[in-house]
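Q: Two folds, back to back.
A: First:
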Amino acid sequence: MKKILCCLLVLLIYTQIIKAQNWEALGPDDFNKPSYKAASYTKILVNGSMPYVVYRDEANGYKATVRKYNGNSWETVGTAGFSAGAVSHTNIAFNGSVPYVAYSDGANGNRTTVQKYNGSSWEVVGTVGFLAGGITNTTIAFNGSVPYIVYSDGTNSSKATVRKYNGTSWEIVGNGGLSAGAGLNTSIAFDGNVPYVVYTDGTNGYKTTVQKYNGTSWEVVGNGGFSAGAAYTTSIVFNGSVPYVVYNDGANGSIVTVQKYNGTSWVWIYT
């Protein structure tokens, strides 16, 4: 149900932007921040009925900050600017009620670091900067209580790579660099215990490609590069066992496009 709600939230956001509807502030304007400094690399996720936002916080040295909306105002989760240094490519996920964030860690050569909130402070999951430098497009998600990350690996021709945390370290799922070439704008979701990854495929005109892990290796779902044109800001969710992807379609003025896999091919969802 959470995955369906997340998909509906994404579609609602894009639909509202396209139709130029009016938006009302959630809580006090300006995010209830003590300053008017900029926030970037923002991500939002709803846990239960409570929205959380992670972002790079200019007011705190461009470090990571997480805030949640308590029904009346936005409050900081733990300490503002809790990362060791400046961050980019932030992402957030939940293990039950526990928030985890992943980001490119400027204090450690822009390598990926994951932290979780233990109820009083943010602690590192595994080791800081556990991946080699040049990591971008990091997404974190859970399969049960096991956190997975997918990212574009700058040390391996920007290929898409998946890792999971085994309780001690972050291990590669399948082969490192699952995409044939650059795999950008990565996102991950699960059908039961099977991870699916969507990415912008550098070997197929930067169109959309989805792969799943069959327990031994990664295999393409349907055809590689199935979008009409180059795709941007790709994301994947499941409705039951049916995968849906959303992206900006470069062949159609970068409008938002949704497709689902019907068991044989990827088909468009029309409005």
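A: Second:
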Amino acid sequence: MFGTVITGQGHLRPFTFFELWMLFFNWFLFGNSLWSINPYRNDLNVILQNPLMFFTQLIFLAFFINGVIQIIKESKSREELDSLDLILYVFSLPLFLLCLNFIGFKNTYIERSVFIVLPFFYIILVKGITGLKAKPISLVCTIFTIVLSIITLTSFIKKSDEWTVYAPKPDWRAAASFFDNELKDTTKRVFIFAVKPPTELTYYDSRFEEYKIKGLDVSNKTLRKLKQLSEKSNYFVNKLYLDLTRHIQFRKERIANAQSLIFFDNKINKENIYETMSLNNVKTFYLIHKIYHRGDFRSLLEGVMKDPRFQLMGTQSFKGMEIFKFMLVS
């Protein structure tokens, strides 16, 4: 509807052989919790700087390889290929992402997009551990794996304020409470600007509504094209046109009745803010900084702070975010 494609978005990165290694033997194995590593740091130094992690990874690599060997042996002994499906389940999606990277699609991957592979990876891992010929060694390896998993889970729980499998959860409830108090002190609409969309505010308070800059303009262009197609009596296109029309009309009504509008765009700047405030005859506005998804917020904040048309009225900090209150002075 809005003409955007997920390929190439800022939170995605290229899927390389290094990422494949880290996917299996850091994200799947340790949940990025036992040794927490910046997911966008794509270099071998992250492994070399953690020799204990690398040694542990090599141990589980041996288990994994043995699991693949066990599966191949089973398929040969049974003279059927059904058990080989498990290997395909593990490698098909990662190999597809590798191929996309090689043909030029550089930003297509984030760990959770391959999460579906996790159970199959562990099945092969378990087959490798239980398939060891020496049963006492197999038992020791099983206990070692269980203990390591418990330690990993404990580490994940303790690191609630650190980026592990995902960014720590910001305290949106406290932020919504802050804005609730701000709304009580004004009869005018409250305007919020952000580089990354603070969608969670709309969950905690129905008076908030998102408005992506130029978002509805793009939708109108799409509608005009669909209307031209629908005039040719294509049932499905006509139905899509009617559904989109209703959806956009509903969004416009929500925006018109919202007490607080949230404007967001990765390229938003001080001129966008000044123009919006002037057109709506509103003096006070807020900038929200999502600490764990900062985008280009620093440039936006520096531009607003240096501009004499704006005056900083105060700041509020909550877990995972900062809120800056400004006033338009000219």
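Q: And?
A: The first helix runs from residue 17 to 30.
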